[in-house]
Design goal:
Elements lengths: L1 E4 L2 H10 L4 H14 L1 H14 L6 H9 L10 H14 L14 H17 L2 H14 L4 E8 L7 E8 L4 E3 L15 E9 H7 L4 H6 L6 E2 L2 E2 L2 E2 L4 E11 L2 E8 L2 E2 L1
Parallel strand pairs: 1-2
Antiparallel strand pairs: 2-3, 4-5, 5-9, 6-7, 8-9, 9-10, 10-11
Length: about 260
Amino acid sequence: MVFGEAHPQESNLMADKLEIDHGQLLEWVRESEDATVESRALSEKCRRYYDSEQWTDAEIKKLAKQKQAATVSNRIKPKMDTLMGMETANKTTAKAFPRTPPHQGAAEAATEAIRFVLQDNQFDSIRSSAFENMLIEGTGGCEVIVKPDKRNEKEFKILINWITWDRIIYDPHCRTKNFNPKTCRYCGQVVWMDLDEALVEYPAGAEVLESMTQGSTTYEDKPRWFDTRRKRVKIVELYYSEDGNIRYCCFTGGGLI
C-alpha cells in the first residue's frame, strides 16, 4: 500500500474550498478502530509468536506452580527470517521502458530520476520494513509525499516514509487487499505527536491543537485523541474518495488542522 500527498499549500487550498464534514471524518476513524479490534489483536499475537512469546500469563503461572519452565521451540521465526532474507537477496530496482523507439532517451532519463529518488530515500530499507510487517502482522505500507526543499523553497523533494502496520487506518468494508479507491472509501495513517512538536508542524492549526488540552476522551483506559499525561495529540492524515476524486485531510479530535 502506498499513500500519496499533494503539495501542502495545495492541500490547504483544497481544505478551504471544500466543505469537509469533521464529524464524518471522526466517524470513519471510530469505525476503522472498532471494526479492526480483532484483526489488530491477531496481528499483535503474531508478532509475539515471532518474538518467542507464545505462552499466555495464565499458562506461565500454571507451569511455574508445577515447577516447569515455559520453553518455546520457535518454528515461526526461522521461516519468517528465511522469507525476509529472500526478499533482501532478490531485490530489483526500477526501470522505465520506452513505448516507442524514439522514446528511448526519455525512458533512460526517467529511470535515472526514479532510481535517484529511491536511493536518496534508502528505499531498500523502507521496502524491507514494510515487507516484514506484511509477513508478520499482515499489513504494511509507506507514503510518498512531495515537499519544498528546506534549503530552496523553489525546489521540491520527494520523500518516501515507512508507515508501521499499527498506524494504518482503512475502510473495514474494503474488498481489495491493496485498498483500491474503487472499493475503499478512505485510507490513511494515525500519528501521535507531542503537543509542542505538533504546534511547530501545524502552525495553522494551533488554536485547534491548544483546545485539545482542555479535555480528552478515553477508550478502554487509553487516550482516544489526547494524552494528558505527556501532552500528546493524535493526528490523522486521511485520503478519501468524494465525487469521483481523492481528497486529503489532516485533522484531530478538535477540528481540522
